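dumping this here so i dont lose it
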């Protein structure tokens, strides 16, 4: 595929969801309405997200994998010259996997939402044209997520980074469960406050560096920024990125948001939105402010492994019998731990660590997206995500009442705990391996301690996930045996099978992803030259 065609495909990927969101607000033509207006607008969401996913596959097919470290499909058009804002788009080996993951997860969410509505699972709680609003918000959210990974201008990056907040807020506030109002407000306040600080850091970098172009700044490798400027910029930008990641102790908005969010919201929040924070560390801070990152790297590692330990202990406490733990809340806390491995890998400032972090990003999106789909299905069938209630309502074993659902939940759990041969293993292993030998200038004894703590965290992760499998899939032997639950439906299988397949493929063939990210990572760490 020639360069112009690649440019058009990338531009279409970013713009199409936004145009689709606008179209979703208008009535469908009579010939396209189908059985009902609600079905028509939900079908519209499936069509648009499906088209975006197909375009992302076309982009991946046309990508030059022999030159994955070079920005491809890049287009640079003037937009607001007075502010130095240019419409600069492009993809490389770092951003391409995240673009495809975003398009895939959003398409699967749209498919799930369409068929769930037919099974009366959407259940909007607000008045007004809820399906239209649902589809429009989903598409705006997709547009913001895709733009975050495609833009190469710091101010456009900030705008895309913030674009996702409003649709996610309304998805939680209008379609969420109990406590959705406070959870939505907590989400928006935390992320907005972090973003204000991040904007100040981005402006500082742009004005001091003489440009907001991320490629030009990466090529300079911080040469246009003083050491003090880099320290301030990394601290300010890092706070905003850490909130979105989320990094302990800035994580407290996440469990509430996940617990209250609808299934689609939880899948996209865990599968994509958290990745926007870690992507910013790799795309913005590593190449643009390397001296500042080297100074703060040990602190980033310490916060990362604290998150691993804290998230695992919180999950273990929620998983025990009688704790009244919520399964969605438990998976949310597990994300704090898994993203801690990503931060640990980035903090090593080595190709091994950063590649491991990027691999863990993709693995977490696949596995945790699957887990939230499964928890949503359990809630549909039982009316609860409380672990004590699930242990009783699934009777002697979920394996017996809904064997395929139980098998998928067990698969997601063992993938999440990092079983070798599945996607969750490689990223965490590479992050710990990199901590054994961090970049020159970093304290090796300190990173050895971090590696040991992270290793202990993997044991705790295995412990709480196996407890969850035992309690939910094997049930409470003292409970009465209820009527059989409905097993996996066809539309659920269609939405979940790609995630299962990719989790296995990434685990068995990690070189496919690592070979894509490594040239780009090498270039970013060398200054984008």
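and the seq i came up w/
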């Amino acid at each position: 595929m020639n360069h112009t065609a690649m440019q058009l495909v990338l531009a279409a990927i970013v713009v199409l969801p936004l145009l689709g969101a606008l179209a979703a607000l208008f009535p469908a033509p009579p010939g396209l309405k189908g059985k009902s207006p609600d079905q028509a607008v939900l079908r519209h969401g499936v069509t648009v997200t499906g088209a975006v996913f197909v375009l992302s596959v076309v982009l991946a097919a046309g990508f030059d994998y022999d030159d994955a470290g070079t920005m491809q499909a890049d287009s640079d058009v003037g937009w607001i010259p007075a502010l130095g804002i240019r419409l600069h788009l492009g993809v490389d080996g770092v951003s391409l996997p995240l673009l495809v993951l975003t398009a895939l997860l959003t398409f699967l969410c749209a498919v799930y939402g369409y068929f769930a509505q037919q099974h009366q699972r959407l259940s909007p709680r607000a008045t007004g044209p809820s399906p239209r609003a649902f589809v429009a918000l989903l598409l705006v959210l997709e547009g913001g997520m895709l733009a975050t990974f495609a833009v190469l201008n710091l101010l456009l990056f900030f705008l895309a980074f913030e674009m996702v907040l409003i649709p996610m807020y309304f998805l939680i506030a209008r379609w969420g469960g109990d406590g959705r109002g406070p959870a939505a407000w907590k989400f928006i306040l935390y992320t907005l406050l972090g973003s204000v600080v991040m904007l100040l850091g981005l402006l500082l970098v742009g004005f001091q560096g003489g440009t907001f172009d991320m490629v030009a700044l990466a090529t300079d490798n911080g040469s246009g920024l003083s050491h003090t400027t880099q320290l301030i910029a990394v601290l300010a930008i890092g706070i905003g990125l850490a909130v979105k990641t989320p990094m302990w102790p800035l994580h407290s908005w996440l469990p509430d948001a996940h617990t209250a969010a609808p299934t689609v919201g939880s899948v996209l929040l865990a599968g994509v939105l958290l990745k926007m924070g870690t992507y910013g560390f790799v795309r913005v801070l590593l190449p643009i402010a390397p001296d500042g990152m080297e100074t703060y790297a040990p602190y980033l590692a310490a916060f990362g492994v604290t998150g691993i330990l804290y998230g695992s202990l919180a999950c273990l406490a929620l998983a025990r019998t009688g704790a009244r733990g919520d399964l969605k809340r438990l998976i949310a806390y597990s994300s704090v731990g898994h993203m801690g491995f990503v931060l640990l890998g980035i903090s090593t400032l080595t190709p091994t660590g950063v590649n491991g972090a990027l691999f863990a990003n993709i693995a977490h999106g696949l596995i945790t997206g699957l887990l939230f789909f499964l928890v949503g299905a359990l809630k549909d069938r039982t009316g609860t995500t409380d672990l004590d209630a699930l242990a009783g309502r699934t009777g002697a074993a979920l394996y017996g009442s809904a064997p395929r659902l139980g098998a998928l939940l067990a698969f997601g759990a063992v993938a999440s705990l990092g079983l070798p041969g599945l996607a969750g293993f490689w990223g965490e292993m590479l992050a710990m391996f990199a901590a054994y030998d961090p970049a020159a200038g970093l304290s090796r004894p300190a990173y050895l301690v971090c590696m040991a703590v992270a290793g202990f965290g993997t044991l705790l992760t295995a412990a709480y996930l196996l407890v969850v499998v035992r309690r939910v899939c094997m049930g409470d032997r003292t409970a009465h045996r209820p009527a059989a639950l409905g097993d996996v439906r066809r539309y659920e299988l269609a939405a979940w099978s790609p995630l299962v397949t990719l989790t296995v493929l990434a685990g068995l063939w990690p070189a496919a992803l690592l070979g894509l990210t490594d040239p780009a990572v090498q270039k970013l760490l060398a200054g984008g030259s």
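Strands lie at 72-80, 85-91.
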